[in-house]
């Protein structure tokens, strides 16, 4: 009783003391990285300001504005706040708590002593005991905020320099200035084994703003020259750990690099002159790599990262309204969001995490953007004169842009649930308008731009969902492209020109891999890579004026990079769905005029690639390893076109385009159920209009060279041996081609269209599978379809002149050889292929009324549909198709016809065909006597008397025919004739009824 009473009272007192003191006092003994925030909150925002060498001119004076150099920062406030929230040091904590602890210990001793006396009086039989009660102590449990961090690192440097404004006066400035700012905050924390611990919210944003080298003239003059350079960096890596925790080690990290540049612009306003010769450079870097861990936890190790590289430029533009503006210089910018560190297999990695043996852990969400925006080197005039870029005394406008966001990421969710999944959306889409001249009553010339762009967003990904439930899945949207207008001149009552060249490389995403062995609903991959260069360049147009556009480019656009997933013994696992799309949409080399002149000249070398090879493995799985793909390659282009209405329009182009979507597809479902099946709809297509001239009262020339290769999908192979509904292939392979080129049309004018075409398209390929030992397995259902429609070499005129020149080489292959095996009684190994091919061409047609027209055309077309010629070949041409010639239908023999025995209007075959040993005589043909009676006799050929039935040949037929139509060469020798069927020789004579002359085959 004594012991029980003392311990009960002691426990009550100690508990009360703890309630008074709090649940714990933080220790200051933790490991603190000097770059890491001491507390849970570390927010730093800075606005460095540099203002220098700006001037205003007015009324005969130039006022040089004062310089400002200062930094506006949140540090005075945030440092105090961060310090207030920082954990209290262990020593100070114990010092401040010492009085309370001492009082609690004293009270405990007194009460314990009384309890001892009472206990002794109640327990004499047990003998005297001197129980002692230890003093209460306080132990540090570490950071009271459990390693959670909120970090902000923002920089907004402002640089204003070299600007000149002349209002009712003149201002001249020369400036060379540099501004640099950098702040690094690495975040290192730990939430392993904790609850709601080690989580990080980290915002890094570098937003430098540069306003430099601009000139304005308003009833005055503003002139500036020089350079400005600006850079800002808000960097920092993130490392944490949520192993064996609950809602721990998670990271949310937006990272923005968004430099803004307004530099070297000239604004010539009313009665003013503005002139700039200025070079601007702007750089921004933000964020870093992210590493965390979420294994054996719940809601741990997840990452949401948003790196955005968005450089913005509005520079070196010349704009006038009732004045004059001249701008030249170079403008460059670089933006980098995120960084990499060696990761899986030494691959430089942006995000690394894991969610093995966990729940809702190790997942990644990462939208990533590299999206430069550029408006540079343009000239615009409204009742004025504007010039940007190169002239005799002026250097070229040099434009350079680099944007990089994110990188390769990896995770895993082995043996987990809802873990190791990836949602990935890298986008690389530069949007640019440069070297465009436009005027309304005036002159605008934007010339000599040289543009280099490199935009990269994201990279490949890898995850692993082996042995998991809904783990290791990944979804990817990967758009890469361009949206741009350059090298364009357009005028309305004036003169305008634009000329530019560019070299551009754009990449979004990469290879995506996963695994789902012995799992459920895991290791699946969905990817939609889209390569879409959209642009207008090298175009000149005018309405009552002159417009000229000249441009050249080399462009490489890549979206995604194929996919792979592996599975054995899975359920609903390792399936792959892909829809790679490559679609260059381009208009270039076009000249048009309405009461004026328009000239457009352009060249392009474009490579557009979406996706790559695919593989899905579902061996001995259920609903596993299936593959569905819709690769589409469709270059759609309009180029080399000249058109005018009461004017002159000239368009000239040289096009080299290579478009590819997807690649080979492989899968396996051996020993599985609904496994290893492939459903595919590849479409390798081409759509283009080029080399056209059209005029109504004037002159129009369109000259184009078109070299296009378009490919979608490839060979497919799978295996369903020993499976049920496994290794089947359902395929619709499409190859549409639509082109109009080398045509001319005039209505009271002169038109010429020249189109040199080399187009090669490929869609799908061979299909190989097997269903040996399986049921409903290894079957192939294949529909390869080719549809080619072309109009070329057509010249039409009403009261004018039209000349068409077309040289066509079109080669296309759709489908291939299908191979399978399996027991057909089990509906396995079925092979059903239905090829359909149509070629419809209208070409070499000169048509004129009170006109001069001509067509010079050549045509080589080779289309293979599953290794067969198209069933329907329908040419419409004056040179090849006469009124007595039919289109070629090579597969018409396969169509059903009425049996000869059912035709009552035909003479019995025995009455017409010769019998062995004798040829039919003409006397057996009804009405032949009337013909033979008037025909002279033809001398027999040497040796012809030995022929049975030789007397049926008329003699002296040559005397009855015009001699000029007889061939003058020697007749071909007749070495031998089939005596059983001597009329077989007549089958060697072709084209006699087709209007092409007689041709005797050897």
UniProtKB/TrEMBL annotation:
Region entry Disordered, spans: 323-342, 547-575
Keywords per UniProt: Signal
Presence of keyword Signal: yes
Top-level division of the source organism's lineage: Bacteria
Signal peptide residues on this chain, from the entry's feature table: 1-28
Polar residues bias spans: 329-339
The protein, known as: PE-PGRS family protein
Phylogenetic classification of the source organism: Bacteria, Bacillati, Actinomycetota, Actinomycetes, Pseudonocardiales
